[in-house]
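Figure 6 in text form: structure in, sequence out.
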């Protein structure tokens, strides 16, 4: 009887995960329903769907977690700071959609060269509305635990936007689908404004 009860609980959880499997419906991650909402960034030039519980990382913490002066311009983090999405817009770097894959491939080469012990899982480019998004996933070595990362790039307002997703490697299977959908949700709001003019 106990086995049957466990099987029923498992099947109910699987059904919930099927029902809640998009950013619009919310997604079950680590057995919790995570809801998402659109967040405008870069003076509303870009919009991205992020977990509604995520907050901008405080500057004092960002300096510790990202010690380089070239830290990301926007860092959105979970309340425990274990899961992060970052975004940087390089206005001085004009960007065509087809160039994103080349830049991500070059970024992966540099990261591998500097950190030969990192494990890379491939690079890809996907069509997204009327542009592209390129990404590369890899496992890095954190202070205490390995970290799962995805670097991604897409044009925003004709400029180069690069971001990063990171979570503990032990949680990557929970976050991988959500992270991919977040990346694909990026909207270039400058195009909408141009269409309205």
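Output sequence:
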């Amino acid at each position: 009887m106990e086995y049957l009860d466990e099987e029923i609980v498992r099947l109910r959880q699987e059904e919930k995960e099927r029902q809640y499997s998009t950013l619009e419906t919310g997604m079950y991650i680590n057995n919790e329903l995570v809801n998402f909402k659109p967040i405008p960034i870069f003076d509303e030039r870009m919009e991205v769907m992020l977990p509604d519980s995520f907050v901008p990382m405080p500057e004092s913490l960002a300096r510790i977690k990202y010690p380089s002066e070239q830290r990301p311009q926007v860092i959105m983090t979970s309340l425990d700071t274990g899961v992060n999405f970052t975004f940087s817009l390089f206005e001085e770097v004009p960007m065509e959609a087809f160039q994103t894959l080349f830049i991500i491939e070059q970024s992966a080469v540099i990261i591998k060269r500097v950190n030969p012990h990192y494990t890379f899982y491939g690079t890809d480019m996907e069509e997204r509305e009327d542009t592209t998004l390129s990404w590369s996933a890899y496992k890095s070595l954190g202070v205490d635990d390995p970290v799962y990362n995805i670097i991604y790039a897409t044009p925003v307002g004709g400029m180069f936007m690069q971001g990063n997703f990171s979570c503990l490697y032990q949680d990557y299977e929970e976050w991988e689908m959500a992270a991919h959908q977040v990346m694909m949700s990026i909207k270039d709001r400058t195009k909408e404004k141009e269409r309205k003019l």
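Caption detail: The chain has one domain: 55-196.
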